[in-house]
Amino acid sequence: MVGNKNLTDLVKACACNLGFDIVRITSAEPFLRERAVAEKRIRQGFMDGLPWYTQDRVRRGTDPNLLLPEAKSIISVGISYLSETFQHPKNGIKIARYAWGQDYHKVIKNKLKRLVRDVEEKLDRTVNARWYVDDGPMLDRAVAQRSGIGWFGKNTNILTSSHGSWVFLGQLITDLDLDIDPPLRKDCGTCTLCIEACPTGAIVAPYVLDNQRCISHLTIENRVSIPESMRPLIGEWAFGCDICQEVCPVNLKAMTTNDENFQVSVLDDFDLGTLLDIDENEFRTLFAGSSVRRAKLTGLKRNLCVVLGNLGDVKSVPVLNRALTDDEAIVRSHAAWALGRIGGSIAWQALEIAVGIEEDQNAKNEILAALAMDTI
What we know:
Blueprint: H1 4-17, E1 22-27, H2 32-44, H3 55-61, H4 64-67, E2 73-80, E3 94-95, H5 104-123, E4 129-132, H6 140-147, E5 151-152, E6 158-159, E7 167-174, H7 193-197, E8 203-205, E9 208-209, H8 215-221, H9 231-234, E10 237-239, H10 243-246, H11 280-286, H12 296-311, H13 317-323, H14 329-342, H15 345-357, H16 361-372
Parallel strand pairs: 3-10
Antiparallel strand pairs: 1-2, 2-7, 4-7, 5-6, 8-9
Helix pairs in contact: 1-5, 2-3, 12-14, 13-14, 14-16, 15-16
């Protein structure tokens, strides 16, 4: 019979063969401290805007035996998505690095499924297991911290010694009795660069993030209008944000990915400004297999309007003028805001026409506010 250490070595070897950069093991004991912290964040309102992030979900996600009654160990994995050739488009519109490759949910889940199969073949028996990425109830960063994948950064990301915070996390709850790895004895020390760099002040204290102020939330999970006060602060970010990672000293020496799923992107050299003109079918085709689909077409167009308004290039006026007739009122309203920011006779003429035909009151109010900018 395979002993704990031999079995643990076998599992880790199988995981590494599948391309996981970091593999660690933790127990299936409940995450009680992390549960208390998560519930406190909900009460404080820092998780507002995520209706699915409930106390019930937190309780389930912090007790592995509720997800797999026979759970004994959790295999915690990390895989880098830092591409050596990555660079933002020349037009200034930015999309978070994690979204330039294939949708990591599918990639990691497929690898975790294969890991179970590979271990079953080696052991010649069935392995009971449940696998999760960040779309499941498990608190993935809690698992990563306790297993020693990395430590909590003050920006609330997990920082790894080898690949920085440019890592996707996955968890495999299993009935295998494996050797447990200890947490890392590392922290951010006195560094506060991420807190200082956040343009919206979303990191309200070390290790505390106000979801409602985070650019990633505002441009991805948020389904309603972006607060006007936040729009200028979003800058060039059309989907997600990497600012707190880009300034992190730990990331300066981060190793790049070896996984081809995260090295090539359909967005390379793509003019993101033209996305305001695409329809739903074109959106689904262009972003097939991409995490960008999470924002939905309407959300992405809304974000692009804000970014174009912030960039202030008069060359964007024609595409924003066309967006004033978009099927979605939220796109029309944000296009109006952008045109008001850019200004000029062509923009004002388009806004004056739009205000006369707009039927949605919120969008009309945005158009009127944009026209008022001409008098400021």
